[in-house]
Amino acid sequence: MSFELTYYPCGVCGSKQYKLLYIIKNFNLVQCNNCRFVYVNPRIKNNELYKIYSEHYFSNQSEGYGYRNYELTSHLRIKTFQKWMKNIDPYLPPSKGLVLDIGCAAGHFLDLMRNRGWEVEAIELDKQMAEKVRAKNILVSEQPFEEFISNKKYNLITMFDVIEHIPDLKTTFKKLHDLLDDNGVIALITPNFDSTQRKLFGKRWFQFKPYEHIQYFTPQTLAKVIEPYGLKLIHTSASGQYADTGFLLDRLDRYNFKFMKMAATFATTALGLKNKYWYMDTGSLFAVLKKQIPSKKIDV
Ligand SMILES: [Zn+2]
Q1: What pLDDT score was predicted for residue 50?
Q2: How far is ligand 1, taken at its centre, from the CA of residue 11, in Å?
Q3: Is the peptide bond preceding residue 42 cis, with omega within 30 degrees of 0?
Q4: Alpha helices in the chain, H assignment, sequence order
Q5: Digits of tens for pLDDT over the chain (300 positions)?
Q6: What are phi and psi for residue 17, nearest 5 degrees?
Q7: Which residues, including other chains, have CB under 8 Å from residue 273's CB and lie 6 or more apart?
Q8: Cβ-based neighbour number of residue 54 at 10 Å
Q9: Considering only CA atoms, which of 162, 149, 180 is closest in space to residue 289?
């Protein structure tokens, strides 16, 4: 696929002044001089960007973006969603409600929530995945969130590894605010530019995928971008995912650590770790957002 590139202002503060940080796969990663937000500029035009996601995003054999085979690691993803659900738990409203999962992939998180008695709804752009989720009797919209229309209010809105893909942040956070129940919460997970992993790996950090990851938040830039839309951060912490040795070896390969990969392959076999998995920090940020409810004045 070939794409047309365009320059955009900072998605957080609107400034057009920035400095170049890294060049990755011929894309420029820049940092806003005003608010320090990191983003890809120039990047694939907004109206073309969503073409990446509509066909075989989760079974993509071409280089550059997407997953090679999402389903192959379903067991690890389900374990990861169970862990994330536990992390969200303390912030959920007391009674069961309606959850919207934006970018639901195979719908594993929604399966877990439905088992807990929640009503579930999804947005998924990948046609093949949307079809699978629909087959489980889940209502799925295939529209980008910026164009999604609903007259419902949601008690929980989740965006797992999604916000970094979204071109129009202002429309997104305004819509999130409008769709969220007054007592509802938004839970999101996104690569954290301030994480130790990013600092350690520099431009080789695996989260730098400039075709599709176009926005790189920190807790500070996330708090800044949501504030004008009546949302506030109520929790941030480090997040990760379950991985097995196959995942680790793939990462070492991607980072071009050939020697480490050879050593790890040897160790995996020698130590019998082939089917072991564990939870690892991926340099991601887990954030919980709520509505900023203006306090009512009491007349005395
Ligand atoms: Zn900025």
Answers
A1: 83
A2: 7
A3: yes
A4: 46-49, 51-54, 74-88, 108-115, 127-134, 169-179, 196-201, 219-226, 245-254, 258-270
A5: 677 899 999 999 999 999 999 999 999 999 999 999 999 999 998 878 888 787 777 777 665 677 766 777 788 999 999 999 999 999 999 899 999 999 999 999 999 999 999 999 999 999 999 999 999 999 999 999 999 999 999 999 999 999 999 999 999 999 999 999 999 999 999 999 999 999 998 998 989 999 889 999 999 999 999 999 999 999 999 999 998 877 777 777 766 666 666 666 766 666 666 677 888 888 999 999 999 987 666 766
A6: -95, 125
A7: 245, 267
A8: 14
A9: 180
3-state secondary structure 15-54: CCCEEEEEEECCEEEEEECCCCCEEECCEECHHHHCHHHH
Cα-to-centroid distance, 175 and ligand 1 (Å): 21
Q: How many residues does the structure list for the chain?
A: 300
Q: What residue spans define the domains of the chain?
A: 50-291
Distance in Å, CA 194 to ligand 1 centroid: 16
Per DSSP, what are the bridge partners of residue 121? 100, 139
Q: How far is the CA of 268 from the centre of ligand 1 (A)?
A: 44
Q: Which residue has the tokens 């912030």?
A: 91
Cα(18) to centroid of ligand 1, in Å? Answer: 8
| CA 294 – ligand 1 centroid, Å | 26
Query: Which is nearest to 293 in space by CA: 189, 180, 156?
Result: 180
CA of 168 to the centre of ligand 1 (A): 14
- Residue 16 alpha carbon to ligand 1 centre in Å: 8
Pairwise CA distance, residues 263 & 260, whole Å: 5
For ligand 1, the distance from its centroid to the CA atom of residue 15, given in whole angstroms, is 5
Ligand 1 centre to CA of 254 (Å) is 31
**Domain 50-291: assigned CATH number:** 3.40.50.150
